[in-house]
Here is the input.
Amino acid sequence: MARPRQFDEDRVITAAMETFWRHGYEGTSTRDLCDSTGLGPSSLYNTFGGKRELYLRALDRYYETVTGAQIERLQGPGTAKDRLRAMMLTSVDSDLDADDGRGCFAINAAIELAGLDADVKRVVRRNFTRVEDEVRAVVQEGQDAGEIPADRDARAVARLVQSTYYGLRVLGRVQDDRDVLVATVDDTLERL
Amino acid sequence: MARPRQFDEDRVITAAMETFWRHGYEGTSTRDLCDSTGLGPSSLYNTFGGKRELYLRALDRYYETVTGAQIERLQGPGTAKDRLRAMMLTSVDSDLDADDGRGCFAINAAIELAGLDADVKRVVRRNFTRVEDEVRAVVQEGQDAGEIPADRDARAVARLVQSTYYGLRVLGRVQDDRDVLVATVDDTLERL
DNA sequence: CGGGTTTTGAAGCGACTGATTCAAAACGAG
DNA sequence: CTCGTTTTGAATCAGTCGCTTCAAAACCCG
Here is the structure.
């Protein structure tokens, strides 16, 4: 065998995710990545191939961790509407946190690169589809429990929730008034 | 007096808008701007100051032209719901046009820069607020005409429409199936 | 047409871009 | 301990970044 790596690949990808998440793809230089990961350029390129490949790995990591936590929240305790509300409010508060200010990495990637890079588009779509599927399941539960009117297709309702949700995350980038965003969340759920 | 300019400032800003719109701020170089505007770097910097200032001017231009056209559509003929539907469908079709693929410049700016540049945030917020105000007016008309239930605050309804609308524009970046997006538009309007 | 003013194109500034090279270092297997 | 393999850091590649300089060109006014 040969010399083992001095770094943890998972930690490196997580650090790269944070950097890409905050500064975008074009806004992140390879030096930025070396600084945030602690790797030298040769290690970085030897391990991952290049900036683009690392970006795709970072997007995957976002899907596994942040989106994963969102999914778990949707599958957690509480009524259907409680869980949908929790998902949206968690994001609203994250978007309004001044020390955060990164928004949703998947949405950022969709806006910056989905139109230019088919691989990015594919990964983002998988992310969105996964959320839609889980929201649909929650809506279905709500309908079964009589909490949400069952006269509409659960998937259609889920897409409505999803659109509003992503729209809120866009508005959260320029809207500082939390009450306005929370009111929209409540209105959305009331009308299901 | 002195030597007059050989270019039309409006045309230059429009060309810069197209370039920034398609490639983003970080994805656009000063060379790209020189190529698309036809100006030399000295003329460009002498006239506008720099890349960032030109970007802000381009955002203003988007507000005046594209958003302006949207506003006019909202103020045009047809029922309230017809006009809201027209606004959303126009954007859906624009987002799905493969030769276009730029999305909404204001949303792009919000995602890429609103968290990093207070001036960009201000301009985007003005854009969003203007749309919200106009949608609110249309909702109000719909309520006065008995087309939309009047038991809800028109502004709250407008914010709901706006969130869904911006969410659709995000989804439009990765969702190729027009029917899915159109169905969400219809569902949104049905539920007002 | 001369004088004053502005714009223009070409050249280039230092800094940084993504990426590569390469020898030294660090290991496990025999 | 040696060999074969892999990783690492340092140095550096050509190219591009945003931006500036400057003299020549282009104009209007008198």
Residues 118-144 of chain B form the longest helix (27 residues).
